[in-house]
Amino acid sequence: MNDAMNFINLEGLKFFGKVNASISHELKNILAIISETAGLLNDLTDLAKQGKDLKLSLLEGCSESIAEDIQRGFTTIKQMNRFAHSVDAPIKEIDLLETLELTVKLSGFLSFASKVQIKNSYKETKSILTCPFLLQNLIYQILIFTYESAGPDGEIHIRLNSQKNDGTHLIFSSPTQLILKGFPTQKIRKTIDVLGIRLNINASPHELDIWIPYVSNKILILAKKLQMDSYTENDEKD
């Protein structure tokens, strides 16, 4: 069990760094566009001072562009904050659809990301007891493989589908054949094992499927271990 915790901590740190790097790159792009638009406004202002005709439509266009990119920046920061809070508790119940949507948005900052469509076959999705940060890491890694296969102009379809009461299928598919070279990696296999998830990549060349239990025995054991460690730490402090 200590091996599982060491894995979560190590991979979590790497994942946190990778996502933060992509977010900072996105924010840098947003600021660069705002800076360019502000520069254009300065040029237009200088022309107006020289007595040149100034088209109102140009000013309106610049103003709208800056407003749109500011909103884009606020949205990106909001997603960054949600991601940061995913490490608040190592084990907790989550809404899988919300976690999936956030991870897709974070992966969308990658330059080679494909277009993604998410479909939930059911109006209500049961909560899942899991390690949120590690599950996000797994979904992110799978998305990277599917993006590399489909290409930036391709499409990835993700759907939640379950006819059982003990878990749900999370299915990644593409209209074109997924060429998942080197998939799954040893890291992905380990992540799946720690989370108590099952992987199925042989059903179709166009899709891969992970079965996520609402509560896995491995997560329950890990949660119990963390609780015991917490009690031990409190006793030592006392």
Summed over residues and divided by their number, the pLDDT gives a mean of 86
Strand order in the largest sheet: 2-4-5-7-6
Low-confidence stretches: none
Structural class: alpha+beta
Tell me roughly what share of residues is in helical segments: 55-70%
Q: What is the total tally of β strands? A: 7
The best one-word shape is: elongated
Can you walk me through this structure?
58% of the residues lie in helices and 18% in strands. With 238 residues, it is α+β, with helices and mostly antiparallel strands. It folds into two domains: 2-86; 89-220, Histidine kinase-like ATPase, C-terminal domain (Heat Shock Protein 90, 2-Layer Sandwich). The strands form two sheets. Strands 2-4-5-7-6 form a five-stranded mixed β-sheet. The longest helix has 48 residues, at 2-49.
